[in-house]
Amino acid sequence: MFLIEDLHIKILDKCPDIKQLKTIHCKLITANNLASASHIALKLMKAYSDCRQITLTRQLFDQMPQKDVVFLNVMIRSYVNNKLYNQALNMYKTMLRLNIIPDHFTIPQVLKACSGSGCLRVGLQTHVAVFNKGLHSNVYVGNGLITMYAKCDRLVDARQVFDEMPSRDVVSWNSLVAAYAQNGMFCDALEVCRTMVEGSGLKPDAGTMASLSPAVTCSTKSENLMFMKEMFMSHTRDSLVSWNVMIAVYVSNEMPADAVNLYLQMESCGVDPDSITVASMLPACGDLSALTLGRKIHEYVKRRRLVPNLTVENALIDMYAKCGSLNDARKVFDEMPRRDVVSWTSMISAYGMTGDGQTALTVFADMQQSGLTPDSISFVPVLSACSHAGLLDQGKRFFKQMTDEYKIVPRLEHLACMVDLLGRSGRINEAYEFIKNMKMEPNDRIWGALLSACKLHSNMDIGLIAADRLFKSVPEQAGYYVLLSNIYAKAGRWKDVTAIRSMMKVKGVKKEPGVSNVELNNQVHSFLAGDQSHPQSKQIYEELDVIVGKMRELGYVPETDSALHDIEDEDKGNHLAVHSEKLAIVFVIINTEPFTPIRITKNLRVCEDCHIAAKLISKIVEREIILRDTNRFHHFKSGFCSCGDYW
Ligand code: ZN
Ligand code: ZN
């Protein structure tokens, strides 16, 4: 008889399911009311709590006539484990009221409840109690205090606790690293992490690695990245979490090509990606226009039934949109059982980027119809769609709707869109007035939009004002010098063009090298201007010469005027200033079947010469060329571009 009961009690320790648990509970009650024996009651409470049956846990607790510190500890822990932090703190208050003295099991749980609820007041009281009871040398208590202070934004106190701990374990170190990282103090976080690894030979755990992943963006970038890589290599590489972290590190640091490589490595190691991997890989595919890989991941998502999942589906829309495959984006969108504001916003932005402003606005209207309220973020692609499609009046109307009807305070992104909209439409004075009337300090994107408009419409007076602001606020950005020199060149003021060049030299301004990426056979190929490093380089230049010959027959005159033609550095070799997108286009032409579309991503704005060239090439080779630059999509077909030469 008793043997069977023993067996039941053993099952309780193994976290049974709720049905099994209730059966055992009944049996224990019928067997001489064993359930009321305190050691069994405690086990039952723990088991119910593990099954997330907190009400039943509490019932058992209330039924016990004698409640000692152990019972209260179990009840507090049950609340904490079920994230019911306020109830946990109330139970702690009850404990103090009953004059039951908290022990070293109680304190860490109370501190967890303080961290979870952000209750600094009880946290501080607990710290005092810890001191009075001499529990401050206990490592669990110390770790709890570090996390509590960090969650309550008291990093100095967290650090002091850490420094004063007589002994620390791996959790103490991880807690401090996470404390800094979660508060955005990545340099400190990395420094502590380094001390931990080099000084104590301990390793950051997966959670800490994850909290550190945005750290690589802080000032000493390459050094931090190296450190993260080392950490990754030293972790068990068959753990999915560390692959996910490292992929996220690359993606958040705008290194999509490295993310793709790591993903392929992960696949070859036989590690199966999950929805987290997929959600960080899809933006990388989008950034690189790696449509083939993106499609492959989509297939995997379907096979593994990772959808419906809003994050994944939204990432899919975004990936297809960035790869210029609007139909696929729309298909994912149409098949979603549920859509949130992000899904709609992605779809609006997809149409906007390709210059189909009207459809973008229709989708926006549908979203409002569906009952969702547009937020501040969803107005950005709406306004930018108006600007890309030259829909001045509608853009103005939406801006008014946003501020008046939805009471959304415009942010710098919205204001930049408006300046762009007015400027592109030739309303340079109005755009300048708009900036002057802004309630916040205009940033460089806003002045940049004005300067671009001045270049487009040859407005030298206001262009100079904008340039002046930009040279003061972002003196290192080469693009703005180039824009101004183009304005001068258009006006024939060559002396000023030369003056800008020497100004750039004096200030040591370096132009960002232009890079074009293209995906072929699951691999991303990158080209720089005048690049001769590709194995097929010779073939590419030969074919380019042939194509340029055909372009000349159609009236193409290469843009040789350097002032108009240096969004990126010129190559001094045989092939004068061959921009990367031309090389990428030719590379695809010689490596794919006729009529295959050509998809290219470029890290800078496409220049006028390349734009003309791409139009002509699309006609000569009868292929669609989809080129995404920093601003938008250019969809070249039969000699025309979707942007209508307005970009
Ligand atoms: Zn170019
Ligand atoms: Zn275009």
Provide an overview of this structure:
The protein is mostly helical and 647 residues long. Among the domains are: 2-200, Serine Threonine Protein Phosphatase 5, Tetratricopeptide repeat (Alpha Horseshoe); 520-641, no CATH class. It has helices at 2-13, 18-30, 38-50, 54-63, 69-81, 85-97, 106-117, 120-132, 139-151, 155-164, 170-182, 186-200, 206-212, 221-234, 240-252, 256-268, 275-288, 291-303, 310-322, 326-335, 341-353, 357-369, 376-388, 392-405, 412-424, 428-436, 444-456, 460-473, 478-490, 494-507, 537-553, 580-591, 608-620, and strands at residues 515-520, 523-528, 598-602, 625-628, 633-637, 640-641. The protein has a 6-stranded mixed β-sheet, covered by helices on one side. A hairpin with a 2-residue loop joins strand 5 (633-637) and strand 6. Helix 1 runs antiparallel to helix 2 (18-30) and helix 24 (392-405) runs antiparallel to helix 25. The N and C termini lie far apart (85 Å). Mean pLDDT is 87; it is low at 561-576. One zinc ion is lined by residues 579, 607, 609-610. One zinc ion is lined by residues 611, 634, 641, 643, 647.
- Ligand inventory: zinc ion
Please identify the top-level CATH class of the domain at 2-200. Mainly Alpha
Work out the radius of gyration: 31 Å
- Counting DSSP H or I runs of 4 or more residues, the number of helices is 33
Q: What is the count of β-strands? A: 6
Give the helix level as a range of percent: 55-70%
CATH T-level topology of the domain at 2-200: Serine Threonine Protein Phosphatase 5, Tetratricopeptide repeat
The largest sheet, given as strand count, sense and whether it forms a barrel, is: 6 strands, mixed
Give the termini distance in whole angstroms: 85 Å
Name the overall outline: elongated
Low-confidence parts: 561-576
Structural class: mainly alpha
**Per CATH, which architecture of the domain at 2-200?**
Alpha Horseshoe
User: Quaternary status of these chains?
Assistant: single chain
Strand content: under 5%
**How would you write the strand order of the largest sheet?**
2-1-3-4-5-6
Rounded average pLDDT? 87
